[in-house]
Write a sequence for this structure.
């Protein structure tokens, strides 16, 4: 048993001083390694829910890509089944729309209206939910579009129409960016507090450290990718707030 005398001794006071200095050093280190403002914003701002032309366009293009790719996959399945009555190309929808308008949807010139969405689902005999991306994938694809549309010169992308360009990005030119965006999206959707709570928490160094600790529990390769995307998104959001 430790004597009470020890706790009143100079040795105990010396230990307390060392402990205090260590805690101060640890606190200083946390502040020194604090997240950059853009990273904080990228993790805390639900930009995809905001009323801004760039965000709306990113969400729209992400939806179009999923819709078009899913319909074309169904065409291929129908062809392999060799059932003549099943739609096997976009021409099958010419009876419910002017063929030129169908072509404009396919090349991305026209957006996908709700009535067109329902008509395609009915014609293909599939649940309409299959033609809409799930929450995580939708935000991830929109994230990729937002980043690449702002940084097109950096990524050296060709001057194609948005849908064509985005297909090239997702499929060929930046698969690593898509992977990072999916990690980022899974992380921000997995946070256990609301956006307004999060913005309040991020004003506190203590809660910033708590968020950093959450990131630190992930493999370093993952947390680095998440922060990279958060920084890019945060820089865009900060610019759009001006």
């Amino acid at each position: 048993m430790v004597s009470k005398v020890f706790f009143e001794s100079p040795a105990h006071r010396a230990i307390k001083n060392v402990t205090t200095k260590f805690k101060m050093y640890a606190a200083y280190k946390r502040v020194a390694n604090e997240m950059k403002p853009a990273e904080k914003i990228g993790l805390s701002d639900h930009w995809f829910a905001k009323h801004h032309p760039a965000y709306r366009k990113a969400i729209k293009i992400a939806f179009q890509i999923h819709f078009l790719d899913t319909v074309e996959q169904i065409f291929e399945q129908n062809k392999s089944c060799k059932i003549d009555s099943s739609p096997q190309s976009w021409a099958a929808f010419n009876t419910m729309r002017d063929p030129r308008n169908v072509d404009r949807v396919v090349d991305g010139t026209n957006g996908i209206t709700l009535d067109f969405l329902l008509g395609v689902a009915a014609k293909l005999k599939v649940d309409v939910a299959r033609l809409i991306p799930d929450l995580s994938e939708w935000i991830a694809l929109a994230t990729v579009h937002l980043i690449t549309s702002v940084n097109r010169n950096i990524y050296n992308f060709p001057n194609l129409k948005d849908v064509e360009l985005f297909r090239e990005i997702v499929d060929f030119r930046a698969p690593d960016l898509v992977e990072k965006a999916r990690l980022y999206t899974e992380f921000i959707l997995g946070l256990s507090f609301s956006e307004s709570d999060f913005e309040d928490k991020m004003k506190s160094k203590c809660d910033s450290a708590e968020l950093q600790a959450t990131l630190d529990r992930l493999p370093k390769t993952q947390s680095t990718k998440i922060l990279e995307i958060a920084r890019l998104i945060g820089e865009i959001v900060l610019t759009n707030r001006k």
